[in-house]
Amino acid sequence: MSIPSNLPLRNDLAGEEPYGAPQLDVPVCLNVNENPYPPSPAVVESIVERVRQIAPTLNRYPDREHMELRRALAHYLSKESFVDLEPEQLWAANGSNEIMLQVFQAFGGPGRTALGFAPTYSMYPEYARDTFTAWETVPRKSDFTLDVDAAVKAIAEVKPSIVLLTSPNNPTGTPASIEEVEALLAACEKADVEGAPQGAHPLLVVDEAYIEFRRPGKPSATTLIDKHPNLAVSRTMSKAFAYAGARVGYIAAQTGVIDSLRIVRMPYHLSAVTQAVALAALDHTDEQLAQVGHLRQTRDDLVQWLRAQTYKGTPLTVADTDSNFVFFGVFDDRDFIFNRLLDRGVLIRDVGPDGWLRVCMGTDEEIAEFKKAFVEVLRLAEQR
Ligand SMILES: Cc1ncc(COP(=O)(O)O)c(C=O)c1O
Description:
By secondary structure, the protein is an alpha/beta fold. It folds into 2 domains: about 10-40 and about 285-384, Aspartate Aminotransferase, domain 1 (Alpha-Beta Complex); about 45-285, Type I PLP-dependent aspartate aminotransferase-like (Major domain) (Aspartate Aminotransferase, domain 2), CATH 3.40.640.10. About 40% of the residues lie in helices and about 15% in strands.
């Protein structure tokens, strides 16, 4: 990074680095929680066809309300989460990153605070910084589940405008139960908001980026939207839909929240090409969800396998996960494990509390490579 001092960069951005995990050209990339399986030939066909249809219209601005996409997302949620939402209760953007930035732009700002539950997704403090919103966290319990009592207390005391609950959580994989979401909602509905007019209550945003990987039978927080005007549930096509490169995220909430986001969105923020590509994937949801089932099995098998491994004579600790990644440790020198895996062409992620590492699900072949390399690295660690 080299920013000359004669540029009037915002004072609070001096010395900051762009966010992002390393993008290294290695054979086995298991570091950014992508879906390892590319879109199927049928999805590729639909993409080509849908983009072909809209290509002659690209001289015009796209539908800035992206109504066809919002209808398709509502239909998807009715099948995936058994919830009936109107298209007006959905809103899409370029990845859930952009959705979340819009949430902070609309509900954060100077004099306001966003509250999260650490360890959690490392982008949240960046949205806060970029919108001059203060960022505070309440620690999770030692098994990374939510400390509901501490959370409820903090909501009353901090009076945040945004409460961010990540479920399943990143980097730990920990799901929040629907009862925990309800407890936080109840706390929000009683709490005031510092810096907002009397009568306003915190907005609870549940980040369900990985929700499709949850165990069957667990309800999504979208099922609570009907009764809670201060609830928003953010989702993405990056993970379950194998669409990280397409950049499509969306949020579900009552129309008051959606209308608030519409105030801050850039005009025509979602290109006609992005809308067409998103619709193409939504033509094939059954097939896509079947593949998610395979990744869930891959994850459960890997958790079991990791729990049977030892590090310097002690069995590994592996966090319970409802996601497409596994958080494991505890290593006295996680850099050693990370770097020796990288030497063997396997890239994972060194995020979260010291001593822990995160690996996301790969293809069956990639997971076999990871296991082979990891056994070698554990042996090296024993010899140190
Ligand atoms: C918890 C969480 N939320 C949101 C995102 C962003 O996803 P998107 O690709 O939709 O911007 C990620 C990405 O890894 C994530 O882990």
